[in-house]
Amino acid sequence: MPKPSKIGYIPTYPQFIVDFGDGEFSSCLRSTRAFNAGEYLVPLDASRLTRGPKAYTSVQCGPGSDDHIELNSDLVYINHSCDPNIAFDLSSPNPSDWHIRALKCIQSGESVTFFYPSTEWDMDQPFTCDCLSKNCLGRVRGAKYLTISQLVKQRWTNPYILQLAAQRDEQFSQRIRSHL
Ligand SMILES: C[S@@+](CC[C@H](N)C(=O)[O-])C[C@H]1O[C@@H](n2cnc3c(N)ncnc32)[C@H](O)[C@@H]1O
């Protein structure tokens, strides 16, 4: 399913609305109600999800190169922030437990954002972040290009991403040791 478009738009979920921008990639998803920190916003309705190749619209759901899903809903309009207000929690081995959770209080009308490297190892379409947060990364390319300390500083990073970062660092250490 392509991204929902402005023409004939019908929201997928009552708790969100797409704010369509004029330019390419300038849209965002806004909350239509307030949420408390820790509250579940929406389950990732496993019946909507489809497996597919890595794309700027896909979300990584595991450590493998084939572990990418399309959301097939308004959720595709969720932008990245280096100081995000939601988490995509795909940590359960059971996809029906995957969900979106508030990381802090969210006001009605606020744009919902997650930290893309919390799900993405090596992104299909890197970009320069415009979140303007104090700790903005600048270029967003995926967790592969971040240190473990940058990842654990976030309120949420999926365990398969931390596992990939740990493996990367271990391989690097082994290479160094082999030269000693
Ligand atoms: C899945 S789309 C998110 C929705 C997108 N804004 C749109 O209008 O289609 C991901 C793309 O949105 C843009 N994007 C998301 N978060 C951004 C951010 N913090 N700064 C700049 N561009 C961002 C990038 O072009 C990125 O590849």
UniProtKB/TrEMBL annotation:
| Transmembrane annotation, as ranges | none
Classification via InterPro entries: Flavunoidine_N-MTase (IPR053201), SET_dom (IPR001214), SET_dom_sf (IPR046341)
A Pfam family found in this protein is SET
SUPFAM superfamilies for the chain: SET domain
Q: Which Gene3D superfamilies match?
A: SET domain (2.170.270.10)
Tell me which domain of life the UniProt entry assigns to the organism this sequence originates from.
Answer: Eukaryota
Stretches assigned to the SET domain: 5-117
**Name this protein carries in UniProt:** SET domain-containing protein
Q: Identify the species of origin.
A: Leucocoprinus leucothites
